[in-house]
Design the sequence.
């Protein structure tokens, strides 16, 4: 196994208000299951799924965090190291749409990615199966995306498995493209040992027994 | 205690393809398969005697042992990261958890997290330290600390470690297989006549010295994971932990050819910021002969390849030219003449196995296997007993002597400032008799000291 090209691994974090359907989206995507019952996520859930993109298999490590405020101090480790951030809102809930700005800001502060202006976000508007109760129009969501540097927007339904696959495929494809831009992985061995005369006398000093 | 199989068992291979389905496929079978496989992986993990995880502190898996693919434990890695970072956010650090017979040990060395889940509780913290140093030997600590700053927190460190899985794997297996070697940062010497060892050391030292290569510091002859001789520049010292990293490196089967290798390697106990360059050769592993001795010459200068190649040739020629030495040396390396308990003399029949550790030289001498500890399982049992005794004496530093009578065997432990001795006796021995045998053993070891230990490290 060693020496062969490893499957790429992408850390994907999903953020949004409590009840917008983050866990349902994950469950639909990973396990293809949907439940009408609402169960708040405690802390975070971790899910895995492989996707094939142009003959490459990519493993998505999906961090499904709790939307409730009392769980929001989960620490920087949750945000940092992410390859992509999925923002989710409920199209029938205008407040969840208004929170997107603060979720995005929170992410950028906590994760402090190297290039915050071009960090890959994706916006998912969930529950489009409840069209009659819609409170946020597709146009409104799209124009928000434009102001944030053309974030891709998908209208999805976890319940009806609508667009969920396509959205995550786009996420994986985008992150993979960024990853392949980094070509220089050649290990460097720049540091020469500078010999220190004191080292001559350290008789087994490193031993901690 | 059940047998532990280093490097995993045979059934570890067939649960691998968790989710290689196409995105477009939506058949329900795939879903079932996906869930079933995920469960199968956890079930399998639960049965393993131990499992090691290395991940970035942001939760991306980097390495898992037992020939598994990191892709299978992606969610688990995130969970480990969550545990560790949560405790960290409380200003605390998570060290271990125990659940029934599973012992889980954590080590957070930014930017990495190490975790081992094991059925054995002994010295897991030490094992994780050894693993950390193994990673450092490949990248150096400073490069490891900088890589995420340079490439971003989402960097996949497996790209830099590509091809080194087997080194990490063999480091884990050898740690698991040895009773106390790595744990106690010790080495063992290959048994040799003192005059032969002397000739070997002085030859290596004189050739290294004569070359006048500024920065060439150490020469080591290794065979069967044991040291035949070690020479050094002036008073520079190489730590046994670093020696074990080298032993692990040269034991990699891909190096065992008549070719020469030039490998950058960081020896973290010596210096964790820079690299040594190791000239590695098996001078007598070729079509004509098969003497498994490996000569390692270490320099801090990357342009010393040709110089050390020359040194190697001189050493080899001089050793071969001394026919008497060379015959003895080949013999000692091919069929090591380990310490036989019968050497102790009368009454030694009741002693089945011993392990002696000299504290000042950090060298170990273990008895040759004898009845009834002959088979793999029996020897494994003996190693487990010694490992447990060793863990016990580490936990209770005031403990000096210990005699434990068991139904199958008796244990005798003796720890002084100078040495630790772990013995397995037959079940019918008394404490008084075992003490007499041990005293004779110590005398015998003292009189054959130069044969079983490297007493002087020759300088050049």
Sequence:
């Amino acid at each position: 196994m060693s020496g062969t090209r490893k499957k790429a691994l992408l850390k994907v974090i999903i953020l949004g208000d409590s009840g917008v359907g983050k866990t349902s989206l994950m469950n639909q995507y990973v396990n293809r299951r949907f439940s009408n019952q609402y169960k708040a996520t405690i802390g975070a859930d971790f899910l895995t799924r492989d996707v094939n993109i142009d003959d490459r298999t990519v493993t998505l490590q999906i961090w499904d965090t709790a939307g409730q405020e009392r769980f929001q101090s989960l620490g920087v480790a949750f945000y940092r190291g992410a390859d992509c951030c999925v923002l989710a809102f409920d199209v029938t809930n205008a407040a969840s749409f208004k929170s997107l700005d603060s979720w995005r800001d929170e992410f950028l502060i906590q994760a402090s990615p190297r290039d915050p202006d071009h960090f890959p976000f994706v916006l998912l508007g969930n529950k489009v199966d409840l069209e009659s109760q819609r409170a946020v129009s597709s146009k409104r969501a799209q124009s928000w995306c434009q102001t944030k540097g053309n974030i891709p927007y998908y209208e999805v339904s976890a319940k009806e498995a609508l667009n969920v696959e396509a959205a995550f495929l786009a996420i994986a494809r985008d992150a993979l493209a960024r990853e392949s831009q980094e070509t220089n992985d050649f290990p460097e061995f720049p540091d020469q040992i500078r010999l220190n005369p004191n080292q001559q006398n350290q008789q087994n000093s490193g031993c901690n027994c | 205690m059940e047998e532990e199989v280093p490097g995993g068992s045979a059934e570890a291979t067939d649960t691998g393809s968790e989710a290689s389905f196409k995105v477009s496929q939506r058949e329900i079978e795939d879903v079932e398969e996906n869930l079933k496989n995920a469960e199968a992986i956890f079930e399998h993990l639960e049965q393993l005697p131990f499992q090691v995880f290395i991940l970035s502190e942001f939760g991306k898996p980097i390495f898992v042992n037992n020939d598994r693919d990191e892709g299978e434990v992606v969610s688990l890695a995130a969970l480990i990261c969550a545990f560790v970072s949560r405790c960290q956010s409380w200003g605390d650090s998570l060290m271990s958890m125990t659940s029934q017979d599973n012992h889980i040990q954590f080590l957070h060395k930014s930017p990495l997290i190490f975790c081992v889940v094991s059925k054995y509780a002994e010295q897991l913290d030490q094992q994780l330290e050894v693993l950390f140093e193994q990673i450092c030997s490949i990248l150096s600590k400073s490069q490891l600390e900088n890589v995420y700053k340079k490439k971003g927190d989402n960097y996949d460190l497996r790209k830099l470690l590509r091809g080194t899985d087997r080194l990490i794997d063999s480091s884990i297996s050898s740690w698991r297989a040895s009773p106390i070697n790595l744990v106690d940062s010790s080495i063992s010497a290959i048994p040799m006549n003192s005059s032969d060892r002397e000739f070997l050391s002085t030859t290596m030292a004189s050739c290294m010295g004569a070359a006048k290569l500024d920065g060439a510091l150490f020469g080591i002859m290794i065979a069967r994971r044991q040291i035949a001789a070690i020479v050094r520049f002036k008073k520079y010292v190489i730590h046994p932990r670093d020696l074990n990293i080298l032993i692990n490196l040269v034991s990699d089967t891909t190096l065992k050819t008549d070719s020469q290798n030039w490998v950058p390697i960081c020896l973290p106990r010596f210096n964790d910021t820079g690299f040594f360059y190791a000239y590695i050769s098996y001078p007598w592993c070729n079509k004509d002969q098969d003497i498994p001795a490996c000569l390692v010459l270490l320099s801090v200068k990357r342009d010393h390849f040709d110089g050390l190649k020359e040194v190697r040739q001189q050493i080899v020629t001089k050793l071969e030219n001394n026919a008497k030495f060379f015959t003895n040396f080949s013999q000692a390396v091919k069929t090591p003449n380990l310490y036989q308990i019968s050497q102790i003399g009368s009454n030694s029949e009741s002693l089945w196995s011993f392990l002696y550790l000299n504290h000042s030289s950090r060298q170990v001498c273990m008895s040759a296997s004898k009845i009834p500890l002959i088979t793999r399982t029996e020897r494994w049992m003996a190693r487990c007993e010694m490992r447990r005794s060793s863990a016990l004496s580490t936990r209770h530093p005031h403990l000096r002597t210990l005699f434990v009578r068991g139904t199958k065997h008796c244990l005798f432990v003796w720890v002084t400032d100078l040495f630790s001795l772990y013995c397995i006796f037959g079940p019918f021995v008394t404490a008084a008799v075992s003490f007499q045998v041990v005293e004779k053993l110590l005398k015998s070891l003292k009189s054959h000291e130069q044969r079983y230990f490297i007493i002087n490290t020759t300088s050049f």
Q: What stands out?
A: Residues 113 and 119 of chain A are 7 Å apart (CA to CA). Chain A is about 30% helix and 20% strand. Residues 164-181 of chain A form the longest helix (18 residues). Chain A touches chain B through 61 residues (CB under 8 Å).
